[in-house]
Each structure stands twice: as structure tokens, then as C-alpha cells.
Amino acid sequence: MKNQYFDRDKFFIILFSLLTTIYIIILCLPIASIVRYSGISSILITIQDSESLSAIKLSLETSLVSLFFTFFLGTPTAFFITLRKKLLLTRLIDLIIEIPITLPPAAAGIALLLAFGKNGILGGFFSRYNIQLTFTPTAVVLSQFFVSSIYYIQVLKTSLETVPIEIFEASYVLGCGKVETAIRVIIPMLKKSVISGLILTWIRSMGEFGATIVFAGNVMNKTTTMPLLIYTFMQTNIAKSAAFSLVLYIISFIILFLIKTWCARDD
């Protein structure tokens, strides 16, 4: 019997609204504090600084290169895992590529250092030819790729699992091979997921810190990305650190806003 003095639906609406409000406050309060502390004028001064411009330029360049490798290596990997998911080897590969997402970023950086460092498995080979990977922009790219590529693969895998097998079979009947089907049929069909996954990966690459500072170091004007510059400023000038943090917030907000707008328009 329904209690006439207690409306359960209304109670849960109020409860959920309250919990949502608390969550939004927790998210927005730090951002509001940064805005209040730094101010717009500090942002304009900070982004004109040569160190800031160098960090922004390096972050954009390395993250885009990392994104390039993510697309061309991650796309076939996602297709292989999805279409061969019943194989034991495929399950093992799926498990291996998910490891970086569970590792602390610093641990990922140590793993990269031991693999590609001067005395590492591959780094030792490159050092014979005087090719150094550590403490270079290449190390920044490797760090970003290692940590962020899984996000794209996961998004694409999830979308591929929703594609009916009949679409693949119809494409094969019409004379398309497996590679041609993937390129000309499936990827265009899943373009929203592909682009969303790439942008999510790009944002994660731009914010990478732990693996980068361990493997690539924090060499000013060479390997100092935006997150590393915030860390550097924090040790000497908290106001500049806050202002540059706000720049990152603004960049992330603009990117996410464009994604949401594009997805809504595409619907």
C-alpha cells in the first residue's frame, strides 16, 4: 500500500538532485579557485612567456604525432581483437594492451625507461648507432602513446561490437576483402566513435605527466610539456602555475565543447 504521506519518486528526485549538486560543486570549486587566484590578466601574461609558448607548442606537436600512431596502430588492433575475440591469443593481447591504463603513470615511465633507455632492451640497440630516445621529444611521444592509446582502442572496440556481423558478410558477398571492408564500410560507419576516441586520446596525451617526467625528463624548451611546466612553475611561482593550469582547463573545455556540439549536430 502506498504511503500517502511519503512520495518515493519525489524523495529520490530530491536526493539525486542534491547528490548531483554536491558532485558539481566538488568539480567546479577548484576551477573557480584557480580563476579567482590567477585572474584573466595573469593568463594573458603567462601565455606570452617564451617558456609557456614552448610548452604549448611541444604538447601540441607531440600529442598529434602520438595520435597519428594511435590511429594507424590502434585501429587494426581494435579490429583484430573484436573479430578474433574467441581466440586465447586475442584475449591475452586484449589483457596486455589494457595494462597501461591500470598502471600508475610513474610506473609506466620506469617501464619505458628500462625498455628504451640507454641500457634498455631496445635502447641499447639504438645507442650503438648514437640514437638517444630518453630526454628527447621522441620520449615524450612514446610516453603519451603508451599511456593514452588504449582509450581510443577501447572506444573503437565497444563500437565495433555493436556492428551486426551481417554487415561484414554483405560486404564480403559484394566482393570486398576484409581490409577493404574495414576501410570503406566499417570505419566510415563508426566515424563518430573514431573521432570521439581520437579526441579523448588526444586530451589524455596533452595531460600526460607521470610517465613523461620519468622517461623524457623535464628539460626546458625540449621535453617540458604543459603539465610539466605547471609542475615547474609550482616550485617557483604559484601564481604562474595557477594561470597556466587555467589555460589547460580552457583548452580542455573548448575541445570537449566542440566534440559535444559536433556529436549533437551529427545526430
Automatic annotation (TrEMBL):
<dbReference type="InterPro" id="IPR035906">
    <property type="entry name" value="MetI-like_sf"/>
</dbReference>
<keyword id="KW-0472">Membrane</keyword>
<feature type="transmembrane region" description="Helical">
    <location>
        <begin position="12"/>
        <end position="35"/>
    </location>
</feature>
<protein>
    <submittedName>
        <fullName>Sulfate transport system permease protein CysW</fullName>
    </submittedName>
</protein>
<dbReference type="InterPro" id="IPR000515">
    <property type="entry name" value="MetI-like"/>
</dbReference>
<dbReference type="Pfam" id="PF00528">
    <property type="entry name" value="BPD_transp_1"/>
</dbReference>
<dbReference type="InterPro" id="IPR005667">
    <property type="entry name" value="Sulph_transpt2"/>
</dbReference>
<keyword id="KW-0813">Transport</keyword>
<keyword id="KW-1133">Transmembrane helix</keyword>
<comment type="function">
    <text>Part of the ABC transporter complex CysAWTP (TC 3.A.1.6.1) involved in sulfate/thiosulfate import. Probably responsible for the translocation of the substrate across the membrane.</text>
</comment>
<feature type="transmembrane region" description="Helical">
    <location>
        <begin position="238"/>
        <end position="259"/>
    </location>
</feature>
<comment type="subunit">
    <text>The complex is composed of two ATP-binding proteins (CysA), two transmembrane proteins (CysT and CysW) and a solute-binding protein (CysP).</text>
</comment>
<keyword id="KW-0812">Transmembrane</keyword>
<comment type="similarity">
    <text>Belongs to the binding-protein-dependent transport system permease family.</text>
</comment>
<feature type="transmembrane region" description="Helical">
    <location>
        <begin position="194"/>
        <end position="218"/>
    </location>
</feature>
<dbReference type="InterPro" id="IPR006469">
    <property type="entry name" value="NifC_ABC_porter"/>
</dbReference>
<dbReference type="GO" id="GO:0005886">
    <property type="term" value="C:plasma membrane"/>
</dbReference>
<dbReference type="GO" id="GO:0015419">
    <property type="term" value="F:ABC-type sulfate transporter activity"/>
</dbReference>
<feature type="transmembrane region" description="Helical">
    <location>
        <begin position="64"/>
        <end position="83"/>
    </location>
</feature>
<feature type="transmembrane region" description="Helical">
    <location>
        <begin position="95"/>
        <end position="117"/>
    </location>
</feature>
<feature type="transmembrane region" description="Helical">
    <location>
        <begin position="129"/>
        <end position="153"/>
    </location>
</feature>
<keyword id="KW-0764">Sulfate transport</keyword>
